[in-house]
Amino acid sequence: MIEVRIHGRGGQGNVVAAYLLATAAFETGQHCQAFPSFGAERRGAPVTAYVRIAAQPIRRRCQVANPAFLLVQDAGLLHIPSTLEGLKPGGGILVNSPHSSTELTMEYGRPMVAVPATALAQDILGRPVPNVALLSAFLALTGMMPASALIKALAHRFKGDVLARNTRLIEAATTQVIAGAWQEVAHA
Amino acid sequence: MLEALEGSAAIARAVARCRPGVVAAYPITPQTHIVENISKLVADGKLQTELVSVESEFSAASVALGASAAGSRAYTASSSQGILLMTEVLFNISGMRLPVVLTCANRAIGAPINIWNDHSDSMAVRDCGWIQLHCADNQEAVDTSIQAFRIAEATELPVMVCMDGFVLTHTLETLEIPDQDMVDRYLPPFRFDRMLDPKNPLSLGTLVGPEYFSETRHLAHQALMAAMSTIVDVDREWQDLTGRSAGGLLSVEGPENARIGVLAMGSVVSTFREALDTLKTKKKAKLINLRAFRPLPDQALRDACAGLSDLVVVDRALSPGFGGILGGEIKAALSGMAKMPRIHNVAIGLGGRDVPLEMWSRLLDVPTEDAGFRILDLEPAKLGDTP
What is the pLDDT of residue A45? Predict the structure, then answer.
């Protein structure tokens, strides 16, 4: 079972990101579970969401304390100690940031991969919502499933021009990271 | 066909499959998505129902009451303070023997305000004369929602489907929505003999004085007790149709010869099911999933607890000044057993506190501690110097 934790702020599409990742996994024939842990329900407040993906039905319903991967939609949240807490040894941290992976890794003293997800989304969707670009980069890094699974998941929610733009965003974000760099972590 | 669906969206789809004539609800977290999704199904032309927007939960329950009395299949949903505001009407619905179905997206009750999950709300209306069924996962919630209409209409008793707020309502997971043909075969159109009809006038909920009131209470109690066999039959029939049981009155898992039992309701059961199968523990234990809290299946509970030396009852709510509500009920239900297990009662997961997988091992240690009722996952350091 792979466990992922998503950190962001209310309004950044954190819960949608979790649902999309889980639905993409479902589209590839796996069992999935995704749920949020809301704080106060307002824009800007820190939100955590969890995803589990497994070959078998998933029964545990506790929060994900020891994720293999962290997806951080707002780099400002890296200053809150609980954001990085519990990550499995060797686990991957993917951060939405205009800075480079090297810069983030130097600043926080641990390996991180950066993707300018907000800028990509602003450019292609015309909206600063980082979730789809971040998920696309995540799928490319892990090789867990093809980008087409994410597009299928998006097709449950969007159609026409919005879906076409999101598909372009997925393609653009995929090229921002080294494909398969986290493959071993994903299959550990 | 399996789908990946959010719990609330799944419940909306399941309720729509039951072809309700009237849906009335007022939004409250974490129930809101259920009614939002029903509203969307109506707007998309996928559900023909009278969807009534009301100004409070009191009115939501009142509309459901009136609709049901007028012969319509009626549905509503709420949580927490919303359930409390409905309370007077909930008693009236059961008192008039109206088969309304309500989803309680279980949430704590303030003050202090807390939007997260525990069982304080459905426990607060424990005595309102409704059947209360708890669900361990979203598939059980879907199946129980459909069964609820069958049970309600067969017994002429209202049914409250209790599903944990957020933990189930806001969780997207893999599940199956039964197709329309199957639900139509299982759940025939609602025909109500006592329907309000100008051609055949009758009164409901009229004044009953001391000369008959005891008899009405007796009948209410008898009806709830008799509903046990309906709950079992309806679930068995569902299993024949779908291959899935939603848990009957209760279900027991774990080794036959275990001497320790853990009894719980709701979504923690799902976590404990995994723990039972995968965690290496020194002690063997059975897991008892109590699905029917009302009617409380006393005989089935005694059968399930036969051979146990210790039973740990897990509460998700408490009665200040008494202790665990479920714990007290189970003690009463098992008293008089020839070899009654020692009963230990703890509360966990109040107001949304996470219940980790490892809680299972912690619960198995409770019998050796002999400490009386307590909140097991309390963090005493947070109490400060409060007297």
Answer: 85
pLDDT of residue B371: 82
User: What pLDDT, in 10s, does the model give residues B148-170?
Assistant: 999 999 999 999 999 999 999 99
State residue B121's pLDDT score: 98
How many structural domains compose chain B?
2
**Cα end-to-end span (Å), chain A:** 10
Whether residue B237 is found in the same domain as residue B262:
no
- Counting residues of chain A whose pLDDT is more than 90, the rounded percentage is 90
Above 0.90 for ipTM, yes or no? yes
Residue B219 shares a structural domain with residue B298: no
Give, to the nearest 10 degrees, the angle between helix A14-27 and helix A147-155. Answer: 110
Find the CB nearest A32 among B167, B168, B174.
B174
List the CATH number of the domain containing B169.
3.40.50.970
Residues 185-214 of B with CB under 8 A from A: none
Do B157 and B257 lie in one domain? The reply is: no
Q: Evaluate if residue B346 carries a pLDDT over 70.
A: yes
| Contacts B267 to A, Cβ<8 Å | 61
Q: Do residue B170 and residue A33 have CB atoms under 8 angstroms apart?
A: no
Domain span holding position B333: 250-383
Minimal Cβ distance to A35: which of B166, B268, B355: B166
Return the number of CB contacts < 8 Å for A and B.
Answer: 68
Asked whether the beta carbons of residue B166 and residue A36 sit closer than 8 angstroms, the reply is yes
Mean pLDDT of B34-63: 97
Q: By the 8 A CB rule, do B167 and A62 touch?
A: no
Domain closes at, from B182, B211, B242: B242
Architecture of domain A2-186: 3-Layer(aba) Sandwich (3.40)
Query: What is the rounded (10 degree) CA torsion for A155, A160, A166, A169?
Result: 140
Q: How far apart are CA B361 and CA B348, in angstroms?
A: 14
Whether the CB of A31 is below 8 Å from some CB of chain B: the reply is yes
Judgement on whether residues B362 and B331 belong to the same structural domain of the protein: yes
Q: Determine the distance in angstroms separating the CA of A99 from the nearest CA of chain B, rounded to an integer.
A: 33
